[in-house]
Amino acid sequence: DIASARATRADDMPAIHGVIGAPDAGGVSAIAAGMQRRLEHRAGDGFTAWSQAGAWMGHGAFHLGPPPQVAQPLRLDDGRILVVDGFVANDEDLRRALGIPPAQRLDDPRLFALALQRWQDRFTEYLHGEFALAVWDPRERSLDLWRDHLGARPLCYLQTGGWFGFASEAAALLALPDAPRRIDPLAF
Fold first, then answer.
1. Model confidence band, residue 12 (pLDDT cutoffs 50, 70, 90)
2. Complete DSSP assignment for the chain
């Protein structure tokens, strides 16, 4: 049951965020720092980040239990970069489908990574839980964003000027240059 699984997860309310600009775009670090300042309340255990040529992805940790085995962002075997806010509710079924022995300890971010590597865009057919995640492919310069079927974990995004940003909270997107600061009546 999802409610009991949620209460036992180590990373219950982390923050994911990222910004993508032109490969030679300056200012990525400053924008990322602004996003982090707006997400500090979701990162009691600090931030970790990955950056390369106009792309930056970060994870703010908030541990309710023991820290996970692996820090995010994660580098997948094919070179893509993953950040995730969420948990796996069907970890026993997922472990069986992935061929992982029950005695082998893997935290949820690593299970997300293995499911993505194995089933690519179809990973949500096998993985159940609450999640928002982002995967950046540095070779293709492409970003994929996913949420669970119910949209339980927030994932906001904005494209403005030559920048694209995503975050666990809309306030973090105000760090993007030219981010609108008015209410959109149609969205409201």
1. low
2. -HHHHHHT-SBSS-EEEEEE--TT-TTHHHHHHHHHHHHGGG-TT-EEEEEETTEEEEEE--BSSSPPSS-SSEEPTTS-EEEEEEEES-HHHHHHHHT--TTS---HHHHHHHHHHHHGGGGGGT--EEEEEEEEETTTTEEEEEE-TT--S--EEEEETTEEEEESSGGGGGGSTT---S--TTT-
Closest CA to 60 of 20, 16, 112, 6: 16
Cβ atoms < 10 Å from Cβ of 172: 30
Span 73-103, pLDDT tens digits: 999 999 999 999 999 999 999 999 999 998 8
Q: What is the pLDDT of residue 13?
A: 74
Tokens of 84: 């995730």
CA-CA distance, 99 to 162, in Å (whole number)?
Answer: 43
pLDDT digits (tens, 9 = 90+) for 143-179: 999 999 899 999 999 999 889 999 999 999 999 998 9
Interatomic CA distance for residues 104 and 24, integer angstroms: 42
Q: Both tokens of residue 151?
A: 């949209």
Q: Report the alpha-carbon distance of residue 166 to residue 145 in Å, rounded.
A: 9
Q: Which two tokens stand for residue 6?
A: 């949620």
